[in-house]
Each structure stands twice: as C-alpha cells, then as structure tokens.
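Students often ask why inverse folding is considered easier than folding. One informal answer: many sequences map to the same fold, so there is more than one right answer. In these notes we will look at a single instance of the problem. The structure comes first.
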C-alpha cells in the first residue's frame, strides 16, 4: 500500500515559512491509515519514532551539521527493517520522502512534529 503520490509535494512550509497545518492533521492521518493498512504495529512505529527523538535530543548540545549524518542514516535503517520483514514498504517510503526534505534543523523539527502526529493517529486507529 503506497503513500499518496502528492504526499509532501510542497514540502513542510508554506510561502510564509510556516509549517503546513495539514502535516499535523489530514496528511498525518492519511499516512497513519496507510501504515495501519500495511500492518505496521504501533510498537514498530514507536520504536522508530523514539530513535528519531534521540537524534533530536542531540540538537540540545550540537548543531545540525554535526548530527545530520544520524538523520541521513534513517532511510537505510528503515530499508533494513523491511528486509528483515519487520517494516512495511509504506513506512520505508514515509521515511525516505521525509528525510529527502531535511536540510536544516527547522526541517528536522517539522519532520518530528509530523511524525509525532502520525504516531498519535496510528495509535488511535489501532485501538478502535
């Protein structure tokens, strides 16, 4: 089950450099629905999110340039999880599309907010 082809087509920010509300609302919900349909568990999603949170904590003491290599490893980690049969292809696409947009701390923080919303919606969808 692939992600919508228009997903993240306009990036994270509008012309005024504000994060699109849809990334926390309908886009996050659609991604969560896709991942749940692809049989990704909340536990798997949470583990990956926590890994990303650990990377974001590095920004408390370091600048983006010194930690970006940790961010750019995420697609290979997702692909590895898929190869082991633990993660669905839709999640690999989610990570790849997002990481390809990240070139600054602001981008990474927007990704984290979006990812947190996806985790929240996923949890809600699996507990109906």
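Output (designed amino acids):
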């Amino acid at each position: 089950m692939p992600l919508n082809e228009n997903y993240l087509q306009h990036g994270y920010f509008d012309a005024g450099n504000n994060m699109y509300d849809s990334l926390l609302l309908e886009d996050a919900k659609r991604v969560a629905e896709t991942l749940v349909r692809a049989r990704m568990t909340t536990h798997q999603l949470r583990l990956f999110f926590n890994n990303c949170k650990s990377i974001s904590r590095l920004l408390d003491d370091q600048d983006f340039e010194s930690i970006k290599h940790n961010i750019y490893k995420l697609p290979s980690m997702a692909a590895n999880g898929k190869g082991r049969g633990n993660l669905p292809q839709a999640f690999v696409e989610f990570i790849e599309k997002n990481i390809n947009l990240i070139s600054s701390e602001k981008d990474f923080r927007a990704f984290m907010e979006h990812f947190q919303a996806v985790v929240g919606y996923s949890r809600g969808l699996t507990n109906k």
